[in-house]
Amino acid sequence: MNIKATLISEKVSSNSVEARNLFASQMFGEEVGEKIFYSLVEAFYLVEKGQMELLDFRDKKLSSSEISRRFESIDKKFKVKYIVFKDLRKRGYIVKTALKFGAEFRVYEKNSKHSKWILFPVSENNQMTWQDFSAKNRVAHSTKKNLLIAVVDEECDVSYYEVKWTQP
After folding, report:
1. Which residue in the list 35, 108, 160, 161 is annotated as catalytic?
2. Catalytic residue among 145, 160, 161, 164
3. Which residue of the set 76, 114, 136, 141 is catalytic?
4. pLDDT tens digit sequence for 101-150
5. pLDDT attached to residue 112
6. Which tops the pLDDT comparison, 104 or 1?
7. How many whole angstroms separate alpha carbon 87 and alpha carbon 163?
8. Residues 108, 132: one domain?
9. Is residue 168 situated within a structural domain?
10. Where among 45, 74, 103 does a domain terminate?
């Protein structure tokens, strides 16, 4: 199965049968009308796995390195997000964007209709203030999810920290 998708501006989409099949079977992309739209990390993951061919608006096939450069220019945090996305997918989780929740990702356990976590990927080189941490925790609590912080180190290994609310 090789999905032909198009990158126009900052959006990746496909209206192929293969895209619909992959959405139905593995929850890649978001169905909007006749098309499946992919987050940048989803699209890059599928390209890397050989399941997607990404074309520009002139129908020219983009190389993996060209896609990486373009995506990093669109989103400065792309590399860290991608490392976390890839790690979680490898572990069997479904990972979706969570911009409307004020987070980077929602994380679902396999076969679950509701996400368990709101996820914030960060580089170990970035500092987080207590105010940042508190704000992220509030976002998770207000959405009735647990907070998951994924820290990516220099070797591209990921450590996960889960924060839950408890009642005194």
Report:
1. 108
2. 145
3. 114
4. 888 999 999 888 899 999 999 999 988 888 988 888 888 888 889 999 99
5. 86
6. 104
7. 19
8. yes
9. no
10. 74
In a domain, residue 147? The reply is yes
Query: Active site includes 141?
Result: no
pLDDT digits (tens, 9 = 90+) for 65-89: 999 999 999 999 999 999 999 999 9
> Which residues form the domain of 82?
78-163
Provide the whole-model pTM: 0.91
Let me know whether 65 and 22 are in one domain.
yes
